[in-house]
Design brief:
It is built from eleven helices and 14 strands. The chain is of the alpha/beta class. Helix 3 crosses helix 4, helix 3 packs parallel to helix 5 and helix 8 crosses helix 11.
């Protein structure tokens, strides 16, 4: 089943085309990244998906529910963690979650209280449950935003820069819980400027630039198409001509060699031994999503 379906969506603000005919399908259960520089159209796309912005043309569906004609079910199927920290300063954490559930027609009940307790426990908020939202740190408020997005048990979760300004410990706790939700079948759509997070977490990645999708593929395919493994070595002597030819670049004392698979490492090291060249230092760098991103955006 397709969890999110975006067909030829366009949205302009005056002469600025925020979305220039975006089409995208995200399957149920995917962990999907939407990447791009500031102003690429990511937030506009999320806003149209959430019904906060009306597209000029095209259509969007969440779990087969059109966000315009079937907006109630589309909203119910979606949980969004916004980029901005927004909270009501008059309520405690527990009260905030109960009110959020009420917005989706979920009445106060033992089942709801049990689910709220489970969310608080998994996000390490149990000891903050009865504290006013104003008393929480920025990282803790972000955890509450995630709990709010999940309190009505949506099958699709959108995370818009969820770890911005969050310390390492909080980030690890948050991702452990999100991974669990994805393993349980939730579809996750992530936007982030921390590209290492997208590389580690996401099965597929779309990259946006100037309101259009300019790259869309599995994470592995993007890495192999736009980046490469590199073996870099330091030697204390001049390289023989046959190894110089294979070297892709030299920076200071480091000599760089392109490696397509791990078997090539042993072959290359054998050539070093064959020519009697002693290696002083050696590092193998894996393909990097940041390199992919820079290459795609520079086109």
């Amino acid at each position: 089943m397709i969890a999110i379906e975006v067909n030829e969506v366009r949205k302009s603000y005056g002469s600025l085309a925020a979305l220039a005919g975006v089409s995208l399908q995200i399957k149920e259960g995917e962990f999907f990244a939407l990447l791009g520089p500031n102003g690429a159209g990511k937030t506009t796309l999320i806003s149209t998906l959430a019904g906060l912005t009306r597209a000029d043309s095209g259509s969007l569906k969440v779990m087969r529910h059109d966000v315009v004609s079937d907006y109630r079910e589309a909203r119910r199927a979606l949980g969004i963690v916004p980029q901005e920290i927004v909270f009501d300063p008059f309520f405690s954490v527990r009260e905030t979650l109960r009110f959020q559930a009420g917005y989706f027609g979920i009445p106060r009940s033992p089942a709801l209280d049990a689910w709220v307790d489970e969310l608080l426990g998994n996000l390490s908020l149990s000891d903050k449950a009865d504290k006013n939202m104003r008393q929480l740190s920025g990282g803790m408020k972000r955890r509450v935003l995630l709990a709010q997005a999940l309190v009505h048990r949506p099958p699709v979760i959108v995370l818009d820069e969820p770890t911005a300004g969050v310390d390492v410990e909080l980030r690890q706790t948050l991702w452990a819980f999100v991974r669990r939700l994805n393993a349980e079948g939730h579809t996750i759509l992530l936007t982030t400027h921390y590209l290492e997070e997208a590389q580690q977490l996401c099965n597929r990645i779309a990259m946006m630039k100037a309101g259009a999708i300019v790259a869309l593929d599995t994470t592995d395919h993007l890495l192999s198409a736009f980046s490469e493994r590199v073996l870099r070595v330091v030697v204390n002597e001049e390289l023989p001509p046959l190894l110089k030819v294979k070297r892709i670049k030299q920076t200071g004392v480091w000599n760089y060699f392109s490696i397509h698979d791990y078997a090539e490492v042993e072959t290359l090291l054998g050539e070093f031994r064959q020519h009697g060249v002693a290696i002083q230092k050696m590092e193998l760098a894996e393909p990097d999503l940041e390199e992919v991103f820079l290459k795609v955006m520079s086109k």
